[in-house]
Amino acid sequence: MYEIISKQVIGNDLRRIEIYAPVICSKAKPGQFVVVMPDEKSFRIALAIAEINATKETITLIFKEDSISAKKLGNLWIGDSALAVLGPLGVPSEIDEFGNVLCIGHEIGVVSLLPVCRALHKVGNKVISVLGTETKRNLCLEPQIHLCSQKSYVMSEDGSTGKRGYISDALSKIFEEQEINRIYISGPLAVIQEVLTIIRDQNVMTRVLINPLTIDGFGICGSDMIKIDDQYKFVSVDGPEFDASQIDFKFLEKREKSFKK
Predict the structure, then answer these.
(1) What class, spelled out in words, does domain 100-260 have in CATH?
(2) Which residues of the chain form CATH 2.40.30.10?
(3) For a designed S-S bond to 234, which of 20, 154, 205, 219 qualifies (C-beta 3.0 to 4.6 A apart)?
(4) pTM as predicted
């Protein structure tokens, strides 16, 4: 069983739990995720691995209580156990010494972004991070992102944290000041598409971390099928990170709408 070691409320319907999972902890790499089943009557939930603690043999998951199963997971107390945690799943992120790396995350998307930022920083990249949110209560892991970034920008729509504005407002200044060698983006589909439109003329390799909306974790259910370079792929098997230039976003939009239904 997977015991809950610690639990925190960190924002609007946002929960942070630390789970004892020694095998997953020993194998997980940045960009990978797990599928969690709180109890025998729950649907499976795909969640990014936010942090790994090798000493305590735990993994940290941060999630929104936006479904019945997610609320069940959030209702578990310290000392309780989740029925099942499957992972690590997915292909690890591409981590290398690229130079100046721009990491862009919006609200819950920052969870997937954090381990990637840390790994990029560790191998010697200059990490510039941009975090976007509607309001301060929706933003998570801001201090942790600051610690692994040489430069960071926080943009909130209501001005409650960082500067008032949008992610797009920070990008023009960043590209004016320095050359960017690689970009990583994680967040809602609408935000990802807006950012890609803005940076289109920069001709920089851009990687997108897609939310693995999978039921089984192996692509068998078909719920996480997407089109990459005109070929059908599965986020849980071939992702969750992909080259932005190869993603069929129209197909991705249909997939997300059908999953919500």
Answers:
(1) alpha beta
(2) 2-89
(3) 219
(4) 0.92
